[in-house]
Amino acid sequence: MLRDGYSIFETVGPLNFLFGTIWAPGAYVPSYGIAALIIGTLLVTLGAMVFAVPLSLGCAIYISELASPRIKNILKPATELLAGIPSVVYGFFGMIVLSNFIRVTFNISSGQTWLAGSILLGIMALPTIISVSEDAISSVPREYREGSLATGATRWQTISKVIVPAALSGIAAAIILGIGRAIGETMAVIMVTGNAAIIPSPIWNVLSSVRTLTGTLGIEMGDVAIGSEHYHALFGVAVVLLLITLIINISAVAILSHLGKSAGRAKRPWLDIPALAPVREKLHPYSQKILLAFIALLFLAIGLWEVSIVIVLAAGAWHYGRERFSRRSIERVAFGCVIAAAMAVLAILAIILGYIIINGLPAISWQFLTQSPTDLGRGGGIFPAIVGTLYLVAGAILIALPLGVGAAIYLIEYTREGRITKLIRTGVDLLNGTPSIVFGLFGFAFLVLFLNVGVSLIAGMITLALMVLPTVIRTTEEALKNVPQSLREGSLALGATKWQTIKNVVIPPAVPGIVTGAILSIGRAAGETAPIMFTAVVFSTRFLPTSLFQPVMALPYHLFILSTNVPGSSTNKYGTALVLLMLVVTFYAVAILIRNHYAKKARG
Question: Is 31 helix (H, G, I), strand (E, B) or coil?
């Protein structure tokens, strides 16, 4: 990234590149200022967090504190299935349904706006924030709950004043990881934000079109002349994007590490910095009012003055009437909001799956699944795209699985905790948080161009393998950690070598966890578009590849092109979306079933 992006900073200058407001590489006098792209990225991400954080926190509280085991076994897999839906399917749903809803609701010419991008990215960030927040809340010691209830506090007072503050570090890390997920998304934002490289005027106009850093890379890299100033500018954009995501992910890793060290004892919130105490004490009494005022002004700015009035009246009624409410009444209202958040997450999953299934089923036929595309994808089938996807996934797993399992065995079995292992684990975490479009650019610059492999099956396999490698390493590590230490000691005591112990004693009980990680990696690799756009795929071909050095079709890219560039292909694009969705969701469902089966077996 640095090698190909460095020259633009020399040519244009770092300040002009970072703070210039005009991005016009195709103008008579090209301009390469990315301030509008950075602001667009930050605005869309901010809106996504405003949407996602309340829903995620409510759902996490419900799963951890209120849900029965039966409901928990429904909600947790549901949020994991949300994580498994491919980004291009989210983008397709957002472009067809969400954007049209916004256009009609606000009576504007196009619904592809900052608001559409924020809502869609908020939905995509829900699983990450819910999962990490739920883990943080569940890790709060039981004594905290019992002590609070013993003093006469209600369950809601215990949750809001004891449990959530104690889990604040983990919740903060969850939000930061959610921010990283939103900033790194490519395909969905390309399809719903309008992609106008402008700064909204006024800045809070959520109905304005925007363009993000990732969207710029996805749109322009395919048409740029290699080695041109524009080419180097795009790699400069990638460097800035990578730095932003690295800072975000390092922050999350540091907070989670602090949380791990503080487990089991009372923790100060991660924002409890002594130097900020005077500011915090002054602002704390007004923090809720400031937040409500900001939200009311935001709705007022986009023309929804009725909503602003409702917010102001509700806030006033709460402020002046809360002393008259009993603790039980407040608890019922709070629990109602928490349950509503959990039900909203389930409803989002049901709406997306239901819409794709209902509209996609009429396209599914034997011919559709076994024929090649015709008429630019309007007719025929998607057989080469299905096979190409399976080829890419199989190759990626064959590369990533030995590397990932070997790295995990080294980290767990052959090293002690120290600087090197911390460095490796931090590298794995940062690799896991790297945007998929950056993997795609790396594959294009290094594999396709530098190694002269060309746009080919092998380039796509390697790129996807690098992307899923952190998942394989992390899941294998957790599986190996769960093997009791006594088994290792017993094997070594009987005279077995270190490797014999690992091969015959440690790995067999860890196989279910390793398989689960492999299946999750397969699901992620099958649904990704950005890493293969510039490395492996073509839109349409009637023949299957006969060599690793030939390009292939793939379902995610086929759906993207059908949705954005081929009018009159509605039937086939719904069918393609359904096939892709079912393929990926099946992988995730199998992984969930395997995990639950062995969890029950372990408890038994």
Answer: strand
